[in-house]
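Annex B. Sample input.
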Amino acid sequence: MGVIVGMADHTSLKEEGNSHFKSGNYSEALVCYTKALDIGGEAPSAAFQLAVHSNKAACYLKLQDPKHAQIEASKALEYNSNDVKALFRRCQALELLDRKEEALKDAVKLRNLDPKNKAIVSVLQRLSAWAQQKNDRIDSTESKVSQMVELVFFDTSGNKEKREQALSNLLVLAREEAGSTKMLEAGLVSKFKALLQKVEGNMKLNVIRILASLSVHSIEKAETVFDVMGLPLLISLFSQPGEDACNATSNLFQSLINGITDLHIFREEKAKHEIHKEKTGTPHGSKFKPLKLSSYQQDLIDQIMRYLVKYINSNKVSAYGRDCIIQLIIRNVTSSDGLNWTKRFLETDGSTRLMEIAGMTSGKSTIPVSSSTRLHCSVLMSKIWDDTMTDQQREQIRTLTDEYFVEQFADASFDSKLDAIVALSTLLQGPTELGNSVLAKPGIMDMLLALAGSKEIAHQLIAVEALVHATSKKDKCVGIVDTAIPVLKQLYQDSPSDNIKVRALVGMCKISSSSGTDAADKTVSDDSQLALSRSCRKFLANESKDVDLRKWSVEGLAYLTLDAEIKEELVTDKAAIQALIDIAKVGDQTVMFPAATVFVNLMNAYDKPEIMPEMKQLAEYAKQKVPEDHPKDKEEYVSKRIDTLISYGVGSAAVALASIVTESNGCKELLSRVFLALVTNAKDRGKLVQQGGGKVLIKLALDNSLTGKGLAAQALAKMAITMNPEVAFPGQRILEVVRPLLKLLHPDRTALQNFEALLALTNITSASDSARQRVVSERGVADIEMYMIDDHEMLKRAATECLCNLVLNEQVAEAHFGENDKVKLLTLYCGDEDEAVQRAACGALAILSSDYPEKLVEKVTKVSSWKDCLLQVLVSEEPGVRHRAAHLLSNLMLTNKDFCEQVVSCQLFEVLMAISKVEGAEMAGARECAQAALEAAASHELVKPIDNSS
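Annex B, continued. Sample output.
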């Protein structure tokens, strides 16, 4: 027989939640309220469910989560639409969500229900003022839109410059909700459609950008743009040859996708949940759910997907347009988003179409491709492969891939076979498991070797590229190394083409570096590796060679620079390093990874496992090889190399690479390693800030691999520790840097990373209350407080110092007076052995004593040892600590007579009297506060008035 759950269980859980709420433990309160509704048994009454949903709304408001607050308040109102508490909480949530029109409706209703409630009157006044401003703005916007429309569509003066400026002004207005609304009401989308087919250049670009801006404000607006423009016209915009025009078209499509599905909002919410889960190990609030689309929304998205896939291999789009189409699919194939694009991609023959493009080279004219197209293809192949959820889907990809290669090799045309080898080369750069399975098929290797031995340069080029990519993975290429090395050597020595030579050179570099950084496990001699390095540098520094050829030499160096001798020789070759920096700044995505790898290797910014001496001895005893560091990889050499690279301007190259990096987390992680190495020395941080390092590091810290996020955040922390944060992160950026620093506070991070994050946050929270409020909004206070009780003394000190700044924030300060031990901990820390902890704890109490003296007296005096703790800071040898202690005591003594009497009757008063008479400028602050404390005692008539006359 099952256990019967009674109403008492529901009620006790609700009461427990109420208790947690009063104590400021809002997350715990949420858990109790949720259980109170979900534990089953006899259904609670409507009044009970209304109250609990309303209480959950209050918790979410306290947790800065207005979306869920609005949901819970609305659930409560289903039981009673006139409940004042639930209605008020929904009103607050709607205002925070910037849904002010809905909030205003609730506020008007609240005024009618409870006209004397001052809080409601205040909210209504604020929202009414906003509504009036909005109406004024709409009137103004309507006038502006009308003027610009007249100039763009009806002006007959023929002044092209004036018309272009009017179109630019419409773009600005389209980015505002009021402006976009007026444009759609005026039926301008149809006019833009007609205009789009008549204009070129900047005017066409601005029309595309206007349509993108109109699409993001709401589902209705996105659907209007989608319906009026039509997919055939929209997709045809990818035929434009210009990079800017294709990028704008790509942004238009993404705006339509976001607008139709609210995908951008979903991804922001998903990021918040991931951050919370990463920090706490538990989901935030209600369970996170995949994006849910209506059948109509799904149909629109499927139409877009089908068109994009169809045009992957169409000759109707330009090379840049094709790259943008592939990147659009890359951005939206993640299964967890709920668009189901991976499944749709496989269903719409996307794999076969992609393989066709993967087999194209930019020298072919049938289908235009760029030098980056094959790279994008390999990234999409990897994304699709990694995103497959079942063995069945992976088997489907294998089958489709096999079918493509069987068909290509069966074709009588030799060109089809060449296309297949090029496609294989691309595949080997993407999902290597899939590429190696094709490479292992009978006859493929023989064909590669035959092509390599051909007298046709074009055939050699195709073969050598495939061999190079086939030797990329040490554990995968063992079977072909013996075959590949002599072929590559012969091509390098005998080919008349530099393009063949440099690719063969890269292949030999990859094979020769297969031992990594292990100085004891070399597959080729040091002299041979140095010779290869010098050949690469010769190609790299030769400005007469084309950029593509020089990029290949960078890839060769990316492998060779694992060797310390090569690092030392390369870093002294200023011409080669300068050429590498110049190529990195070109903005070509194909050079990002190898260039970043070279920088990482030169700075030793990669992870190296630490081998315990005992394990090393054991390995030697067992006659097992132990990885050995090269003497020139020791710290003094590395530090000198970093200084040299900084003097060459490598920071600007890293910033340039970070500015163009797109979907590759591997590349982002490499760049994060580069930046962390560049800010190792405090003297170099200002220069990196000037080069734009702060801005790109924030992006890398938020969008990266898990390791990359930590490395980028640590680099930000180092910058924030030693620099004025308002200089390092000007304007809004000082607020943006808070989130990555808080994410660095995690038990899984190293003690150094946690320590530097705390120091950085301390510096940032000293800058302004807006910075402190951002820490509160990001729910970072609890994380910082956690480190105040850490066993690591340095972490404890840094966290306490950070909290001293945070108590200047009203919300943080008030949290100290709930049912918790926050004040008790600060009081006890006044007696800590660490003087820095004393100073911070006493400073925090001194700040609280200014605004909450009565509440603080009550809390402090509950600590049994409070007199001894405060005596410790009052007798400190540091004047600053004494000043804080005297300030704290004077505030509390002035406010509370009982407290004052206790101070007068103990040793604290004697010390105050002594401090009040101490001479010297450094003690001026403490002396004045001590005198104020004595005067407080006199005002309570506990001592005779102090005679300060001489």
